[in-house]
Amino acid sequence: MLKEMFVHTKAHWGLLLTGALAVLFISFCEFIIPQLTKTVIDDIIPGKKADALLETGGLIVLTALVLGLLHFTSSYVMTVVSQKAVLGLRNKLYTHTLRLDVKFFDRSRTGDLMARLTGDVNQLQELVSAESLSILADFVTFVAICGYLFYVDWQLALLTVATLPFLFISSRFFSLRIKSAYRRVRQISAELNNFLQDTLSGIRMIKSFASEENEEKQFVKLSDRNRIAAVSASRLSALFSPLTDWLNYIGMTLVLLFGAWQTMRGNLTVGEVVAYLAYLRLLQAPIRSFSRLVTKIQQSAAAFERIGDILDTVPEVRDQEGAIVLPSVKGEIVFYDVDFAYDEGQPVLESFFLKLRGNETTALVGSSGSGKSTIADLIARMYDVQRGDIYIDGYPLKAVTQQSLRSQLGIVSQEVILLNGTIRENIAYGQPAASGEQIEAAARAANAHEFITALPQGYDTPIGERGVKLSGGQKQRLSIARAFLKDPRLIILDEATAALDTESEQKIQQALSRLLPGRTCLVIAHRLSTIQNADQIVVLEHGEIVEYGKHDVLLRRNGRYKELYRIQFP
Ligand SMILES: Nc1ncnc2c1ncn2[C@@H]1O[C@H](COP(=O)(O)OP(=O)(O)OP(=O)(O)O)[C@@H](O)[C@H]1O
Questions:
Q1: 557-560 long-range Cβ contacts below 8 angstroms, 24+ apart
Q2: Which of 92, 158, 490, 550 is most buried by its number of CB atoms within 10 A?
Q3: What whole-number distance in Å separates Cα of residue 434 and Cα of residue 425?
Q4: For the segment 80-126, what is each residue's pLDDT rounded down to a tens digit?
């Protein structure tokens, strides 16, 4: 972990050195101030040296000013370093995550990945903080003061440090418990958030089942758990401070009593006792920060482990060494003796053969779960086959770069993903160089221009969470516009399952009849009415081709296609 953080911080060694020097000078200044106080009490007061009094006062104020400046420098410099280190790590993590394959995302929960990219990275940032660096200063201060105290009076020194182990133990004891108590509070708050999100976004369902009361009860229960956890966490924190103060006072009293006694006997001066008391306070602070640092290192180690899990994941789908750039293709695709399973032991395709002829439209039909989307995903190389090969114009998919394959592939899916941004930006997604005219031409071809220009801000209308809400048909037409703009050789079209109104449906069919000709197309068909003109219809069941041919031929055959057709058109 430290190595990884070091990689990201070493580029800023100049700043790190400045920070380290600043904290060393901090310890020096902290050591000096009690010495100056002692001089006032022991020398200046008895000697009635009024001039020196002013001088020393000025020196104390100056030292305190330098101390402030040094504190500022160290914390500013360390924030800069930690922000830069975190930026490096977060960018590396994001870049790596984006290049992981779909299988990884199938297995991962989005919320969890986001937590790793934000919370866990921030946790590491805390490790490279001014506070952590000040441990160095604390350590130096600690050793210097202890050395000095033992040098002046070892008995008093022993008394001074006597309470420190208790302070350390109680700090550890409480900080561990406080940490886990607050973790629980955070957990319950997260549950509460999830609950709120679920119920508020599902408000229509709640109303339609008239289950408001039920939801209320659950909410009250969760809120109550949150209250109990929060109270028990603050009880611990509330107990910790007074206990620490009490231990500190015990230490102070011991030093005061013994110091006073020694002074009475003439072994110590008043100034020395005052200086001892000041040093005692300076010793107590590092003890608390040592304990905090131990906790921070533990938390950071856990965070790093979670980040490391991602960084160590090697995508199964990746460009082979020496992968070639796929030249512009005609688009003939052949599945040759392919085996594929998402999970070991549960094959979806076995010894599978299929040919999509170039410039033709092949429709895949079959019941739910028969493997239609799997075939489309394999062509887009979202997954790699376990045996056999898929060829495009004779090139094995595994031998070409993913970028060169996908740049020739357009996917028009029923689940249209629109990103926050304007309609124009959404159509031009992935083609930032597209001109306004090209975008408009694509929208016209997709029958989307009309509804876009009817919106108040036209192509500049924001969509996404905060923007206008588009209907299913409108979204689909934007997706077709994207495909027109990309102008790919291959099209994968996942037909909408939801019934669209007749007008919308007509406009989409019209747009598609312009998009598909002259390209190799794979249509995942849910409604048989739309694929009657396909060059080839492939009927799948349980990952096997049970029939293929043209619509009329298949209808005459009285097989599975006819059966499916009868269900839809009784
Ligand atoms: N990401 C996945 N992980 C594990 N199994 C999967 C995954 N996606 C699909 N499957 C399984 O693979 C089989 C084929 O699914 P696929 O999605 O290809 O069918 P489909 O014909 O497209 O179905 P539908 O018409 O319902 O979309 C099913 O048994 C399904 O449960």
A1: none
A2: 490
A3: 10
A4: 887 887 788 888 999 999 999 999 998 887 767 777 788 788 877 77
CA torsion angle 377 379 384 385 (round to 10)? 100
Rg (C-alpha) for the chain, rounded Å, is: 36
The residue among 457, 449, 514, 520 whose CA lies nearest residue 478 is: 449
Q: Which two tokens stand for residue 146?
A: 């202890």
CA of 446 to the centre of ligand 1 (A): 29
User: Residue 17: is it exposed, middle or buried by C-beta count within 10 angstroms (0-12/13-18/19+)?
Assistant: exposed
**Angle, alpha carbons 313-318-323 (nearest 5°):** 150
Q: Using the atom order of ligand 1, give the atom closest to the CA of residue 103.
A: 1
Q: What percent of the chain has pLDDT over 70?
A: 94
> Is this complex scored with an ipTM above 0.95?
yes
**Mean pLDDT of all residues in 55-69:** 91
Residue 341 binned pLDDT confidence (cut-offs 50, 70, 90) = very high
**Which phi and psi (to 5°) does residue 327 adopt?**
-70, 170
Write the residue with the smallest CA distance to atom 11 of ligand 1: 369
Identify the residue whose tokens are 């056999």: 388
Q: Is the pLDDT of residue 296 over 90?
A: no
Count other C-beta atoms under 10 Å from residue 303's C-beta. 22
What phi, psi does 373 have (nearest 5°)?
-65, -35
Mutate-to-test residue for ligand 1 from 339, 346, 374, highest number of ligand atoms within 8 A of CB: 374
Position in ligand 1 atom list of the atom nearest CA 373: 22
Strands 387-392 and 395-396: antiparallel
Report the Cα 276 to chain-centroid distance in Å: 49
Residues 416, 421, 423: CA angle, nearest 5 degrees: 65
What count of Cα atoms within 13 Å lies in the side-chain half-sphere of residue 37?
17
How close is the Cα of 568 to the center of ligand 1, in Å?
22
pLDDT in tens, 416-468: 888 888 899 989 988 888 898 999 999 999 989 998 999 888 999 888 665 66
Question: Of 374, 380, 354, 340, nearest to 492 (Cα)?
Answer: 380
Centre of ligand 1 from the C-alpha of residue 374, in Å: 6
What tokens were used for 151? 């040098």
Secondary structure string (H, E, C) spanning 478-505:
HHHHHHHHHCCCEEEEECCCCCCCHHHH
Tokens of 518: 């002259």
Q: Which atom of ligand 1 is nearest to the CA of 540?
A: 21
pLDDT at 74 over 70: yes
> CB neighbours of 360 closer than 8 A, spacing ≥ 6?
520, 521, 535, 536
